[in-house]
Design brief:
Elements (H helix, E strand, L loop, with lengths): L15 H4 L6 H11 L7 E5 L2 E5 L3 E3 L2 H8 L3 H13 L3 E4 L6 E4 L2 H4 L11 H24 L4 H52 L3 H4 L1 H11 L19 H12 L12 E3 L2 E3 L3
Antiparallel strand pairs: 1-2, 3-5, 4-5, 6-7
Length: about 270
Amino acid sequence: MEKGFIMLSRKFFSNRIWEAARTFSECEAWLDLIQSARFEATDTTECIGGREITYGRGQYPASIRFLSKKWSWSERTVRTFLSKLTKEKMITTDNSQGMNVITLCKYNDYNGSGTVNDTASDTDINQEIRRLTDIVTQLTTQLSTQPRHTGDTNLNKEEEYNNSFKETSTSVEAKKAEQAKKLAAAKAATLKRKEDFYNSLVPYVIRYGKEMIRAFFDYWSELNKSETKMRFETEKTWELARRLSTWANREKVPKEPKKSNFTNHDNNKEYTDF
């Protein structure tokens, strides 16, 4: 009955019975190699004896001296035992890394994944591998016989991207030009309203004097940062006569206002009425 296996917990090898001091039999030594070999599927690298040793699943780095102490054997007996296993194609040994690395030839036969399904024979596993390989081969053949348009597709995508980039750039430039045009128009309209504001103050020069009217105009016609609104246009309510009266009361306008030659230069326009 060579099929199947018994599940033996690794805790067994930390049991006091197994760890008891004794001279190992060949059977125990062989079992020790099986349980000591790396179980994980990925390779690992460890510093052993001052050297970095890389080994993988089913491999066990161990010097003759180490095994001699572990099994309570002479080094000669260890060499003889390992040579015997090698001849029977149960293990191979490699010293290329500066340390003896033992590889168990049929490690999976002794140490499966630990599930019930591991009792399946190698034949069943190999058949499944061949089946999957055939499927992959068929898919590869189908893909290789299909017409390829990858190059054309990539060119089309690149062309679409370039056209999209050009359209985006043109659109951005057009938007900037449109915004600049609107801003220039808004500034021009503001200057026109400023001129109208100036003209609306001319009739009050006789009453309040040029100096006060000029100060009033300069303050309330001050433009915002975007130069699209004057200060008085930001007020919620605006009554020119009332604002002038309030300004005059604060300034205490003299009965005979002083003469002023103040000239307001705004966009090459001269305000000379006050």
